Amino acid sequence: MATGRNHRPATSRSRGIPDATVARLPLYLRALTALSERSVPTVSSEELASAAGVNSAKLRKDFSYLGSYGTRGVGYDVEYLVYQISRELGLTQDWPVVIVGIGNLGAALANYGGFASRGFRVAALIDADPAMAGKPVAGIAVQHSDELERVIEENGVSIGVIATPAASAQPVADRLVAAGVTSILNFAPTVLSVPEGVDVRKVDLSIELQILAFHEQRKSGELPDDGRAVPGTDIGEDAGGGVTGSPVAPPAASVTKRTASAAPAATDRRGDEPGNDGDLPAVMPA
Amino acid sequence: MATGRNHRPATSRSRGIPDATVARLPLYLRALTALSERSVPTVSSEELASAAGVNSAKLRKDFSYLGSYGTRGVGYDVEYLVYQISRELGLTQDWPVVIVGIGNLGAALANYGGFASRGFRVAALIDADPAMAGKPVAGIAVQHSDELERVIEENGVSIGVIATPAASAQPVADRLVAAGVTSILNFAPTVLSVPEGVDVRKVDLSIELQILAFHEQRKSGELPDDGRAVPGTDIGEDAGGGVTGSPVAPPAASVTKRTASAAPAATDRRGDEPGNDGDLPAVMPA
DNA sequence: CTATCTTTGTGCACGCGTTCACAAAGACAT
DNA sequence: ATGTCTTTGTGAACGCGTGCACAAAGATAG
Ligand SMILES: NC(=O)c1ccc[n+]([C@@H]2O[C@H](COP(=O)([O-])OP(=O)(O)OC[C@H]3O[C@@H](n4cnc5c(N)ncnc54)[C@H](O)[C@@H]3O)[C@@H](O)[C@H]2O)c1
Ligand SMILES: NC(=O)c1ccc[n+]([C@@H]2O[C@H](COP(=O)([O-])OP(=O)(O)OC[C@H]3O[C@@H](n4cnc5c(N)ncnc54)[C@H](O)[C@@H]3O)[C@@H](O)[C@H]2O)c1
Fold first, then answer.
1. With an 8 Å Cβ cutoff, is A284 touching chain B?
2. B213: nearest CB among A91, A250, A255
3. How far is CA B214 from the centre of its chain?
4. pTM for the structure as a whole
5. What's the domain range around B107?
6. DSSP state at residue B192
7. What is the CATH number of the domain that holds B83?
8. Which of A44, A52, A132, B198 shows its CA 20 to 30 Å from the CA of A215?
9. Among B98, B100, B105, which residue has the most ligand 2 atoms within 8 Å of its CB, making it the best to mutate?
10. Cα–Cα distance measured from residue A9 to residue A174, given in angstroms and rounded to the nearest whole number
11. Do B131 and B85 share a structural domain?
């Protein structure tokens, strides 16, 4: 999921390419680029789908939204398809990008080669720390936040990347938008509020890990139901596991007659067995 | 959101929580944690939904999968909900994690505080470069790849993070899986092939930017070649981004009578309008 | 030109996810 | 108790995305 979006007609897609398809185009493009470098002239939907890690029917349907670029009995012309997808994604033009917040992550992003190779050009690196100003990162001198608006306007930047601490993300986003940016890639763990017409996509490592943890818990616990899954991973016993600290207070009655509703909660759970309300020592958040 | 699903029969979710909901739980948890720190006792679905950037009806339905933890006429008990969601996500236990590939990105990840704050503990940092061995990154000494299997087994690691170059990703994934890892977060731009039962989530900056570029292109009104102009979105934008270079080579008839189909492609495109922002997952299962 | 084989393009059905809308639960006042 | 007001929990409708299955297009061989 991308962002904390709120605007969205929902029934607005009257002609465009489905969002799900757009999200896969870069995947196909990557696979096609690899084929192109090996001078492979054509590929079947089956081969390409396999390389991209998707279902071949899905791939064909995706391409059908772009038009009929394949040849029955043969497959797709690699070079031609690379061009068509690039064009559709808007990669046939140069996209200047600004990265705001040149800390650990921002610096890594600035050094990332995947930028330039796809038509994205780092127009500027911005940081609020005066001590950073002038320092070269990835061959580009970091500029102070004061330069933000000027840089955006002078370079016609429409895409901004936020890699500042969470607390600064919204203010930075506001400035980016005010200066003309209409697309933001946010790495800070916060929900950004932006005006209609501005796209925000977010990348949150913490969320990804939590999703993995959820599934991991099911695997080890083996109980699909309500979960008081128990540790003891399948693999070699976990020494490190176990209860460490106890940042979070156990359920317990914190307010009102919560105590009552804690047990009765079993009344609604679908197929699960009652009497659980499992209470394990809590370890976590902050 | 969570769209492309591959393994995980989808139907196997039996009485489980929908994937889309699982993906949002961390979002709710973050918002709730913030409220908790401000000692707010209860929240209504409306308030919390707003803080998490989602629709209130969706939030209520999401919570309904966990059970009936709200009180009509009042809302949800913050502390209680924090605990329930943490438990459901498996955050009440400690998850040791290994990061493989301590380069620009790997080092940034190692320094990321969002790890520990959610119950994830960096058990080890692994890199193939002998020169890196022993060097401390984020307070932890980097270990050579040879130690990979031992570290995983000794710590009962079940979650691995790959931050190596694309070419090394698959081999690293194979070793992780062979050693017992069953969940992988992949930052390398490659499709990983893993056995059934192993979850892989990927984060690809390049793909995110390309998706943004797609929408950005629509906003600026011109659909190169085949498509004609589209009504401007809203924000009086300045066609941001001056067209500079042309990263991608033009079509050119490379095979057969391709030249003909270039124009006729207009036959299928219907009319559409922009405005929609795909809320697809920034990260998809792979 | 006809037959056969390959692979695309897509109609169709199905299931997940989103959203609306409202009955009912409970808080609170009288 | 009874009534009013607030907010949850969820039934139901709907749209999107997925994947099957196959007719048709085109290549290729005879
Ligand atoms: N490091 C990671 O792997 C990682 C992973 C996921 C998310 N994040 C998130 O990314 C963000 C950055 O992480 P980091 O590890 O690089 O942090 P960091 O502290 O190393 O860097 C933050 C940088 O932002 C600058 N900054 C602060 N306020 C600013 C402002 N208003 N304008 C411009 N610059 C400003 C600071 O000077 C600093 O250089 C954080 O929100 C973090 O939660 C980081
Ligand atoms: N830097 C970014 O912002 C960014 C963004 C998106 C994706 N990525 C991807 O993340 C990966 C890492 O990027 P980076 O900028 O940190 O690269 P990098 O070259 O700085 O670091 C890669 C590290 O991996 C190590 N390595 C190589 N092969 C290995 C192996 N087989 N086992 C263990 N370690 C090995 C190298 O020694 C090096 O330290 C790349 O695949 C890149 O495409 C990076």
1. yes
2. A91
3. 19
4. 0.83
5. 95-205
6. -
7. 1.10.10.10
8. A52
9. B105
10. 23
11. no
